[in-house]
Every structure is written in structure tokens, then in C-alpha cells.
Amino acid sequence: MGKIGRNDPCPCGSGKKFKKCHLGREDELFSGGESEFSDEMGEKITSLPEVAYGRSKEMLDALDIKNLTGSHFGIRFIDHAAYEALSLGDGRLLDRREGGSGGVMVNIQKTAMSDPDNIYIAITPAIGDSALIHQLAHVFDYLAGSKLMPGLAKPLSFELGIPVEHVEHPHEFGYWLEYLRDQFRVELDADDMIIAYLYDNGLLIKGVDITQQNPPAIKTKSDQILRFLSEKSGEIDAMICERPGYIGSRVRKDEEG
User: In this predicted structure, what is the pLDDT of residue 225?
Assistant: First the structure.
């Protein structure tokens, strides 16, 4: 890997600049020892057998990743319980859906050495269509969108005092979520429906503002999202109340995030 500039996005995928994240702690990213991104740990992940839960195989077979993103990467689905059993420390990042189903895109830095040609998604046997395209949208957003790695945006959200969902799902993610929804005729669950609704109204934060650490732009947009959700709370609740994953008003949830 080439030299990383101080102002480049950190390779860990947090969305923060390198100088504000892993500068001085590069061994945590590239060490071959027992660090979070060690070769041994990557080999453990990439040696897990592929799974075909839900519509994962159908969707993967239908997607021309190279044509859509210009990338050489493939996608492999692995069992989340087996992944979590490796004690990699990010099982808490599982995007849980109704009935305990869900998935998580594995940080690409974990598997880059042992399998540089594939991106891994750990999923549960009960994963539904909306959760599947949610994780696929993260992959496509990473390959041909914001370039942000999901699951590591908490430091940025804490620093700015905004809900983590606002930096976890940028504008470009919204594009891919809707593309995959239409491609596979998926009924979005409650949370994804809100993301799509915000995207349609031009309210998701642009990836460039996140990667370039633009606090005024990010905070302004986050405030706009919260105001919009509050003003449209009745309309939003009516729209999502019968969808999978509905647990009540998302306005309070977002304000407390």
C-alpha cells in the first residue's frame, strides 16, 4: 500500500482524516502480528465457508459488480455466528433486523492481505431482503460512492455530537440502496425506508463532506435531517408503521442517537 497523506481518509474506514485517526498507530492497520488487522486474523475470516442465506446468492449472481462500479472486487457471504466466534471485536456492529436477522460488512482491511479480490459480508440465516440490500449498498457505496467503510463512524459522530446514522448512511449510500431496492423489488424495512425518504428529499450528507472532515457542512445537514424528521413525523410514522422493524417513532430515536 502506498504512503498515506496526513489529510487522506484513514484506511480503517472511520471517515476521519489519517492525522486525526491512526497516524502514529499504523501498526494497528498493517501489522502482521496480533493487531486488529493481522494476517492471521484475515486468514481466519477468509477461510470461513461461503453461505447462501435468504436471497443472497440470487442477488449476487444478478449483479455485475465490475460493470456497475468499475471494480475488480467480488463479494463473499459468510455466516455471522462463525465470524463472531472468531472474537474479532466487531460483532457488536451487526445490523440487526426483525427476528434477530441482519448482517455486517467486514472491514476490508481485515481481509486485504489474505484475499485481496473479495469483500466479505457476514450474515445471519434469517436475513431478510432489506437487510441484504442494506449491506450490499454499503459495499457498492464503498466501491463506487462515498468510499466510506461502514461501522466505524462513531468517533466522528461523537466528535460532532450528531446521530451516528447521519454519517453511517451518506447520500451515495442512499443511491445504491434505492438502486438495489428497485433491481430486486425489495420492500424496505422501517429504517431503510427512512433512509430512502431522506435520500429522495436530498437530505443525506454527501460523502465528500464526511471524508474531508467538513464539520459545518456535516452539522448543518444533520440539523436539517432532525428538523425534517420532526416536521414530517406523522407522515413518516404512517409510511413505516406496517413495515418490518417498526418500533415506534424514529424522530425520538434519531434525536437520542
Answer: 97
